[in-house]
Design brief:
The complex is a heterotrimer of chains A (234), B (253) and C (263). Chain B contains four helices and nine strands. With 253 residues, chain B is an alpha+beta fold. In chain C, 44% of the residues are buried. Classes of the chains: A alpha+beta (234), B alpha+beta (253), C alpha+beta (263).
Chain lengths: 234, 253, 263
């Protein structure tokens, strides 16, 4: 019952990874007891389950995900939000106002207008309807400051790192608050613009080199080097 | 009939461009050429120069065309006015309409369309220079562009034509051979499932000749398939190589 | 195309075919009842109507004069057009030809052109200047499946029915003389379409079978049992052995039909 490839090997759609009693995980599919890759990525497996960590994939909404999106349309009783997905999301006025929406009194563009950014949670989504968002929880709502950086959504786990090690390092070294949208959109708020940009560079580098090893150490080193450079110029 | 000033296959059995009957033209594949598209690829095959770009999956416009249970795949095959000897009008010709349809039908079986209902994927193929076999090269590039875009696929689709020229079955006909030869059979293949997703023919072949021609074309498809995989991996392997070098240097210090 | 086919019917058809049966009790390799009438449109130089099961196609042939194509100055012109008229099916909309009607026209065209039915050299009036242009117009009047085979048959029947007026050239002008000559036809290609349903191949798919099929493949076979044109269609696929099996079925059926029609 063989697995034909080593861990961390690069595969393309249609590559045969294993045959036998295995579970087809992320970005794989099973046909007649054989597991194939369905996206370009790196093979990973733990005992029975075989995954392919995709190098590029778009975001598909899931209930409970925290996402960062852009308002694209002010509608009749809510807003359409671009959450970097093939499916546009809906944010109801009643959710944002925390009370029923009164068309005569409430002026929606005043609350949220086209181009505004929000951090939101996906409260409902299925194959027949577009996803619905909520901002009625602490930590969610309109974004008023900070930097936005976009990465391909499959890299978010790499940005988080094992047990959060990568993201804690970046936060620590740059002193920034970072919100990671599962949809690949990341919000960085720091004390200074330089801190924010340093965090951005670290994240973009992670995206580029995500399929390599020793990344956490290299990023930590890069951040420390940049910081000491700045100390010297002061 | 026109007098042929030169034979298509010479006494040594070589073709006009020096190839053996079962030889492909030189192929160059590049993934990710267009940064705006979600996925893209560029192919040169002989004198053919073709660019493919993919947008999607994204919302369907107009909305009423959306399919409730799967992605809508759209495909446009278009030739640039300067791609052929005599300038071609930019307006879509009947041939381009037919090719857009058969190319789309050659790619559909490869994509997991049922995963993303009510979305659409646009595949755009632009032929910048044409020299025979453009629909096959177009499919080869489009499949790469789709894989590059991150859309989940069962397999890549590789395409190649074979045909008959002066009583010899040949692989990968160029334009002169297509025009002067007696048959041209373009084929597209998903190798894992041994699935033929495109098959057309014009010309005249006996049933036995047809079988040999298709088998030769399938051989060509498999060679192209290997090149497609290389092209996809090349995009990511270069960084891995650099990193290996760095690790080696550090270890030696 | 037509109304959405129910899942129950889809399953019924697939299960029947797997056992070698079809909804209308045909064998997998049987054609539906075929009726061909020629000369039904007097205004056209040639015409024919084909009724295949409930599918109905009319083809009219018109002959005009025109200039030859620049790369073939010593050949007449042959052109095929197809119309899926709105009344033929709830799925056909009025408007310019869509990809389905263009594909249909080009398949019929290839079958006729590649098998060299018409010796286009005989259509030249004045080399490089004036030639006869043969317009073959396919008109689908009712769509109940397998438009390809019905249209190809009708086109061939119409060509066999086509008469050209006798003429002579006087001072560079064409003068019509009394009498007619049949259009010189050399071959009688027949197009056979197979649909793949599950693991089986069925010949002459009905509309419902087309809605269930994975893919279709059409072969144009000439009098010498050569293949002159092939078109795979549909969003499914064929395995190589299925293609070769279909080609053998097509050869056999084409021979049968040609004999039956006495072509």
């Amino acid at each position: 019952m063989p697995i034909f490839l080593e861990k961390r090997q690069l595969v393309t759609p249609g590559d045969l990874i294993a045959e036998g009693e295995y579970v087809a995980g992320e970005n794989t599919y099973i046909e007649k007891n054989r597991i194939y890759a369905s996206r370009v990525g790196i093979v990973e497996y733990e005992t029975k389950k075989i995954d392919v960590v995709a190098l590029k994939a778009f975001y598909v909404p899931r209930m409970g995900d925290v996402v960062i999106g852009t308002i694209t349309e002010v509608g009749f009783n809510g807003w359409m939000v671009d959450i970097n997905s093939p499916y546009p999301a809906l944010l109801r006025a009643s959710d944002v106002l925390s009370r029923p929406f009164k068309p005569q009194k409430d002026d929606l563009p005043q609350v949220l207008d086209v181009g505004d950014l929000v951090v939101a949670n996906i409260i409902s989504y299925d194959r027949t309807h577009d996803p619905q968002l909520t901002v009625a929880e602490p930590g969610l709502g309109k974004i008023t400051r900070g930097q936005i950086v976009k990465v391909t959504p499959t890299k978010i786990p790499r940005v988080i790192g094992r047990k959060g090690s990568m993201i804690s390092t970046i936060k620590q070294e740059t002193g920034c608050n970072i919100i990671l949208g599962v949809n690949g959109v990341i919000l960085i708020t720091g004390k200074t613009l330089e801190d924010e940009q340093l965090a951005m560079r670290a994240i973009l580098r992670i995206e580029e080199e995500s399929h390599t090893t020793g990344l956490t150490d290299r990023i930590t080193q890069m951040l420390k080097e940049e910081k000491s450079k700045r100390e010297e110029t002061k | 009939m026109n007098e042929k000033s030169e034979k298509l296959i010479d006494k040594k059995g070589l073709r006009l461009d020096g190839r053996k009957p079962d030889e492909l033209r030189p192929v160059k594949l590049q993934v990710g050429a267009i940064t705006n598209a979600d996925g893209s690829a560029y192919i040169e095959q002989g004198k053919n120069k073709i660019l493919a770009g993919v947008y999607g999956p994204r919302e369907v416009h107009p909305k009423h065309l959306a399919l409730q249970d799967r992605t809508l795949l759209k495909c446009r095959y278009h030739m640039a006015p300067f791609s052929v000897q005599e300038r071609k009008s930019p307006a879509p010709s009947r041939r381009e309409v037919e090719l857009s349809k058969v190319i789309r039908e050659s790619l559909e079986p490869a994509i997991f369309l049922e995963y993303y209902p009510r979305t659409m994927i646009d595949v755009f193929v632009e032929v910048l220079q044409a020299d025979g076999g453009t629909r096959c090269a177009a499919i080869t590039a489009a499949a790469l562009a789709l894989a590059d875009s991150g859309v989940p696929m069962r397999d890549l689709v590789a395409a190649c034509a074979a045909g008959k020229v002066e009583d010899t079955i040949v692989l990968d006909l160029m334009d002169t051979e297509d025009k002067m030869g007696s048959a041209d059979v373009p084929v597209a293949l998903m190798p894992n499932m041994n699935a033929i997703t495109l098959l057309q023919m014009d010309g005249t072949l006996s049933l036995e000749e047809f079988e040999s021609t298709v088998n030769l074309a399938l051989d060509g498809c498999k060679q192209i398939y290997a090149m497609q995989k290389e092209a996809l991996k090349t995009k990511y392997v270069s960084v891995k190589e650099e990193e290996k070098e760095e690790n080696k240097e550090e270890a030696e210090e | 195309m037509a109304a959405v086919i129910t899942r129950v019917k889809q399953k019924q058809i697939s299960q029947l075919v797997a056992k070698g049966n079809r909804l209308d009790d045909r064998e997998l390799t049987d054609y539906r009842e075929m009726k061909i009438e020629q000369g039904i449109i007097e205004r056209a130089e040639g015409s024919a109507r084909v009724i295949l099961g409930k599918t109905e196609v009319v083809v009219g042939v018109k002959i005009e004069t025109g200039e030859p194509f620049p790369d073939t100055p010593n050949e007449g012109v042959l052109t095929v057009n197809a119309e899926l008229v709105p009344l033929a099916s709830p799925g056909f909309e009025p408007g310019p030809p869509d990809e389905n009607s263009i594909e249909l026209a080009r398949i019929v065209d290839r079958g006729i052109r590649e098998s060299k039915v018409i010796d286009t050299a005989k259509l030249v009036i004045e080399p490089a200047k004036k030639v006869f242009v043969v317009f073959i117009d396919v008109y689908v009047l009712n769509h109940d499946g397998n438009l390809i085979d019905a249209s190809a048959l009708a086109a061939m029947a119409a060509l066999l029915n086509t008469k050209m007026a006798n003429y002579e050239i006087e001072d560079g002008e064409i003068k019509i003389k009394p009498g007619y000559e049949p259009l010189p036809t050399k071959k009688h290609p027949i197009t056979i379409t197979c649909a793949k349903i599950g693991e089986k191949l069925v010949v002459d798919p009905s509309l419902e079978e087309e809605q269930v099929m994975d893919a279709r493949i059409s072969f144009a076979i000439d009098d010498e049992e050569n293949i002159c044109a092939i078109q795979k269609g549909g969003s499914g696929y064929f395995e190589p052995k299925e293609i070769f099996e279909a080609s053998k079925i097509a050869k056999q059926k084409a021979d049968e039909i040609r004999k039956k029609l006495n072509w």
